[in-house]
Amino acid sequence: MSLKCDICFHHCELDEGRTGLCRARANRGGQIVPLNYGRLTSLALDPIEKKPLRRFHPGGLVLSLGSFGCNLRCPFCQNAEISMAGAEFPARDYSPEALVQLALALRPRGNLGLAYTYNEPLVGYEFVRDCAALVREAGMFNVLVTNGTIEEAPWRALLPLIDAVNIDLKGFTEAWYRRLGGDLETVKRSIALAAESCHLEVTTLVVPGCNDGEDELRALSGWLASLSPDIPLHISRFFPRHRMNDLPPTPVDTVYRLAAVARERLRYVYTGNC
User: Fold this and answer.
1) Per-residue pLDDT for 246 more than 90?
2) How many CA atoms lie within 13 A of 250 on its CB side?
3) How many domains does the chain divide into?
4) Cα distances (Å, whole numbers) of residue 159 to 8, 40, 129, 142, 164
5) What local confidence, expressed as pLDDT, does residue 241 receive?
6) What angle in degrees, to the nearest 10, is found between the helix axes of 214-227 and 252-262?
7) What is the pLDDT of residue 71?
8) CATH code at 214?
């Protein structure tokens, strides 16, 4: 029997045994199941600023975990080894309970909680949800780093458990998002809902000749400011990666120039990878 996955706008129709575009969700036994539940490819105690979050408990550390899979196809992906991988990728099994115990054990070292990051965590929605509920019960923080490509209902259900989120806003044109396999309006909705629910920061990676125009950045920052001028925006420098090795790194001057444009409307603008 064919089933539809409802986590993101792709709505993959999956016959029994088939896996979705994200490579992390499949039809098994008449149910859509996350193949990456508890399967960790990455686990590290990171500075909170690395997420990046600059205005959420600065100086703190957060136990950061990742799995495999993603529902976008960015040719410049910085973590393609795991984001484009499937269940064949080597991983270690952790239960939500075990991760929360590890997070608590690291509290004396400054650990704030758990961060769901590295690949696209929301293709493993159920694991994030289950971990987040236990982290909240333990009195620690949940941090999410996501591309924001999620349907409204599951996003609304998860947000009450999330304390801080950084959402990638990869540009501000539908044409660019189509090239990445995404949908701009979906991400804008995710950002708007997060702005009402938890601490929110936004990151835009500037790719030369693709999303580096002043008019686009002015529209992007103006829209964020319409939600709140206090939303921090991180403008990051592109380096050749994955399938986009034919472009040079973003000129540093371009990043600084676009940051100045964003500061016309936003109070907190940061540059990255410079």
Assistant:
1) no
2) 28
3) 1
4) 15, 22, 9, 10, 9
5) 84
6) 40
7) 98
8) 3.20.20.70
* Helical (H) or strand (E) element with 173: none
Mean pLDDT score of the chain, rounded to an integer?
Answer: 97
Q: How far apart are CA 197 and CA 160, in angstroms?
A: 7
Give Dmax (Cα) for the chain. 55
| Residue among 34, 59, 37 at smallest CA distance from 49 | 59
* Domain span at 259: 3-272
Q: For residue 58, give the DSSP letter.
A: T
Distances (CA, A) of 140 to 104, 110, 247: 8, 11, 42
pLDDT of residue 267: 98
Closest CA to 242 of 40, 88, 85, 25: 85
For residue 242, what pLDDT is reported? 84
pTM (2 d.p.): 0.97
| CA 14/CA 204 separation, integer angstroms | 32
74's enclosing H/E stretch is none
Q: Helix (H, G, I), strand (E, B), or coil: what is residue 112?
A: strand
